[in-house]
Amino acid sequence: METWRFEHDVCDRLVRQLRSVGDALAWRAFNFHRPYILALSRNDPPGPMYGKTGLLAELDRVERAFKENGAFALLHDLTNCLRIGDVTVWDRVRPPRTEEIKTNPKARKSAQIRRINQARAAVLEAGPLPGERASETLHDLDLPLRTHLDVLRAALDRAATEGCHATAVPGSRALYVVDQLGCIQQGLPSPQFNERLQQAVNTALESAGIAAGRDEHNVHFTSLESTARDPLRVPWANYPLHPVACARLIGDYASVIVETSGPALARLLQVAGLDAHWVLPPGKTSLKPGQVVMEIHQREQLRGLPAGALTMAPGWTLQMGRSELDRYMIELVQPGSWIAGMKHVLAARQVGQPWPHYRNEHEVWL
Asked: Looking at the DSSP assignment, which residues form a beta bridge with residue 73?
């Protein structure tokens, strides 16, 4: 049984690594325009390709797109992030076109066609995202995305030779990287290496101002075993890093962990003028998809009221979920860009669940 489990884990890892390359192709073909990924990822994850009914028809569509029009077509089953439809075609004339391919055209599922149309309308016509809740829509921030990915690049370079490296990142965050090949080069016994890593992490936490109350209030996000699991994450192959560093991250030879303190983040937003409150209970360091971690309130200013009058002040509450915090952490978004984005969403007073995106992401990624 142990041998079978090991072989299953190896195959699962290989499939995810290959699909992460497919994800990188998708992001690049969409010119790193995140709305397409947000819209087309809203389905169950793809199953095995081998033996799939209709696979030959899908492959034929990919070949015909190139031979007839010189167009690039991407099979969705080769990705983790494209989960609606079977193939997307880029012909350099029209917007990208997602298609559902069936051996028998009469057998097309109306539900899949409807979701394809919903995804297209969400991106091109500001319609609701695919799904049952019409309140989920894309939100164009019309703001530049700024990151501290240069800090990640430097940390990966250091870890490649030293085995590990930890540093503070502006915005109440600590980043630490472990590289297996660097560990081998150091030749240190495990106890000594673990002691060196712990010292580096403690120093980074102190520098970031998030060492106190770590067990109760800190949360962390990691690259380990995340390749091609979360369809909303930018694939490692698209990060502005050396290709070898990208490959090590994809294969888990190098791992990245970013840690923060919830109350420290709330204070960061409060200093920026936002009424923010960390709502995750103490000790809850493992976050679930969709879980609310922070609430930001915005009260309306009422004027001209007599002193001492009983009034009710209307306002808005922005709830931050795990996916938004994940972006701030793993993509190392600069605090200024992150805070400006939240203020932009609050100012829009959009009822429902907005999914924000920046406009210039093609300048940030590969």
From this structure: 89
**101, 129, 157 - which closes a domain:** 129
Are residues 234 and 91 located together in one domain of the fold?
A: no
Domain count, the chain: 2
Cβ atoms of residues 130 and 343 within 8 Å? no
- Give me the helices (H) in the chain, please: 2-29, 34-40, 55-69, 110-124, 149-162, 180-186, 190-208, 214-217, 243-250, 262-271, 322-330, 335-348
Instruction: Say if residue 85 is in the same domain as residue 42.
Output: yes
pLDDT on residue 70: 92
Confidence of residue 298 (pLDDT cuts 50, 70, 90): confident
Over residues 14-39, mean pLDDT = 96
pLDDT higher than threshold 80 for residue 100: yes
In a domain, 44, yes or no: yes
Please check whether residues 205 and 91 belong to one and the same domain.
no
> What average pLDDT does the structure give for the chain?
91
